[in-house]
Amino acid sequence: MNSRRSIVIGTAGHIDHGKTTLVRALTGINTDRLPEEIRRGITIDLGFASLDVTAPDGSPLRISFVDVPGHALFIRNMLAGAGCVPAVMLVIAADEGVMPQTREHLAICEMLGMSDGFTVISKADLVNEDQLTQVREHVAEFLAKTFLGIAKGPVLAASAHSGLGLGEIREELTKLATRVEAAEFTRPMRLPIDRVFVKKGFGTVVTGTLLSGEIRVGQNLVLEPGARSVRVRGLQTHGESEDFAQAGSRTAVNLSGVDVAGVSRGQMLVMHGALAPANVIDAEITLLPYAPALKHRARAHLHAFTSEVMADISLYHGDPVKPGTTRLARLKLSSPIMLTPGDRFILRQPLPAGTVGGGRVLDANPLVHARRAVTEGWLEKMAKSAPALQLELRVQRRGSEGVHADALAREMGLNIEGVLEIAKDQLDSAELIMVSGEVLVSRAAFINAINAVLAQLKTAGAEGLKRAVLQDQSGMKDEVFCSVIARIITDRHAHIRGEVVTIAGAAPAISIHGAQKLDAASAVYRKAALAPPSVQEAAQQLRVGEVEMRRLITLLIREKTLVRMGSDDAFVHLEAVQKLAGRLAEMRGKTIDVAAFKAMTGLTRKHAIPLLELLDRERITRKQGDVRIVL
């Protein structure tokens, strides 16, 4: 296994400011691979190169470059590369200084949440010392209020042709690579695809920057959007075959199960069931200071990682977003893309084309029927909350329904282990409750659920309610309902006998001795199935009087354990009727006469006729002449 740590760094800067030449001087690799790029001498699409260095602790370190085009016409390609890198090397030519694409590229980097990097004044051999000093001052002023300000990152003068400053750049790259926040391993594997091609003898190959997790040879993955199952045939990082690739590395993946025509830039490789595409998101959006105001229901190009879609923007307040301000908005995407909370994106207006702002995803799974004002208040809390409170807010909004841990993990873009780690303190303090080992419910919602069930039981009084009826009335899912019932029984707020739950303190319908007799009576009819005894026969079996037997039968009918058959004084256990209905369901639409019914059930006419009358009454069958139609 390869233990070399990898980090990906992007270039940024105006066209012809020497980004590609500088990368070639540092790595020996020309990232311009397209014939038109070589012919015209400009970068059109993304280019890739790597540099192996030794970290201060002596460990091997690979620095991968994503070299982006500087021309305004190819800004879409630049965004596809910048969206996947954590740090940047901004390149400004000494003979031209800060130019329009310098400004736009740096603005994009800030909108994407980058917080580290450094600046290179390239082509330093083309100017004299005085001019270089003036350029330094101008660049320092330009960077002053950005994440690349001199207080945060150096400005190095260099020349790819003379070799000036290349050593200092390598040193700074090593420092940058060792201090950049480690790639996320607690999140599900995500690899946004930026290149797709066919390699002779191998088939389909995709490349990208592995944002989180790891990929292994032989692994089954999914291409999203599209839910296309694929298998990893092989892996390479910069031409070297590997058994696995870790987060933070540039990775080429040889896929089986899909042709090259079935893959495109913008798709993402993910684990089965770990994440789902989003076509509606709630986000915090920010406009650049020099951008025009953004109106409610405006349309814009949304760029996230290597994806690009159109977005219809609905502001949570109708008045336009002013330049330099931040607002909450719901974005409806023209086609689904892979996004999770915390992901950054860029917004560009169609005409005149230009970057106007960016944003941060707050929720990629908005609740469909939630009221707008409630959602807005919830998003305001989410925007300024730490991960633990964000998780709690997500559970709280589900109320007593709760949310499965795996569904919450998908919603938050985390592994289940990550969810449980974040929720540990809330679970320990019982602010959140885990029911059935898989569903999270807030303490307030669980208490409300208990109170709702107790209120239903109080209304039912001494007769109580069957569990199924109680759950149906409460509208709770199985896991939450079972935990609520267990809690109220444990706390002695209610008691249960068989399937009937009764509020504590209510006068019991029968004594303990009577309950035993009731269970015995139920057992007699359950055992008899479709050939139940008469009242007198049942009384003899239980050794009770007929009056007592009829009282027990009345209680069992009230509990819906027994059902009266026809007009005769005969009763049958509900389980037997349900099983018979299941058998008849296979005959739906067919007819059956008494003789056929007797043959099917093995009953005599004594039991068959009352039972058929019961089936007619329950609309399981309908009598038509001498036969019955199974409904």
What report would you give on this structure?
The chain is of the alpha+beta class and 631 residues long. The protein has 5 domains: 5-179, 3-Layer(aba) Sandwich (Rossmann fold); 190-270, Translation factors (Elongation Factor Tu (Ef-tu), domain 3, Beta Barrel), CATH 2.40.30.10; 278-363, Translation factors (Elongation Factor Tu (Ef-tu), domain 3, Beta Barrel); 385-509, Arc Repressor Mutant, subunit A (Orthogonal Bundle), CATH 1.10.10; 529-630, Orthogonal Bundle (Arc Repressor Mutant, subunit A). It is 34% helix and 29% strand. The protein has 19 helices and 32 strands. It has a 6-stranded mixed β-sheet, sandwiched between helices. A 6-stranded antiparallel barrel has the order 7-8-14-11-10-15. Strands 16-19-18-17-20-21 form a 6-stranded antiparallel barrel. A hairpin with a 3-residue loop joins strand 23 (432-435) and strand 24 (439-442). The radius of gyration is 35 Å and the shape is elongated. Mean pLDDT is 87; it is low at 37-44.
Count every helix, treating DSSP H or I runs of 4 or more residues as helices. Answer: 19
User: What is the terminal separation in angstroms?
Assistant: 65 Å
**What is the number of E strands?**
32
Supply the number of structural domains. Answer: 5
CA-based shape? elongated
* Percentage of residues in helical conformation: 25-40%
Kindly report the spatial arrangement of strands forming the biggest sheet. 2-3-1-4-5-6
How would you sum up the major sheet? 6 strands, mixed
Tell me which CATH architecture of the largest domain applies here: 3-Layer(aba) Sandwich
What's the pLDDT, averaged over the residues?
A: 87
CATH superfamily placement of the largest domain: P-loop containing nucleotide triphosphate hydrolases
User: Strand portion, in percent?
Assistant: 25-35%
Q: Which class best fits the helix and strand makeup?
A: alpha+beta
CATH class of the largest domain: Alpha Beta
pLDDT < 50 stretches: 37-44
If you compute it from the alpha carbons, what radius of gyration comes out, rounded to the nearest whole angstrom? 35 Å
CATH topology of the largest domain: Rossmann fold
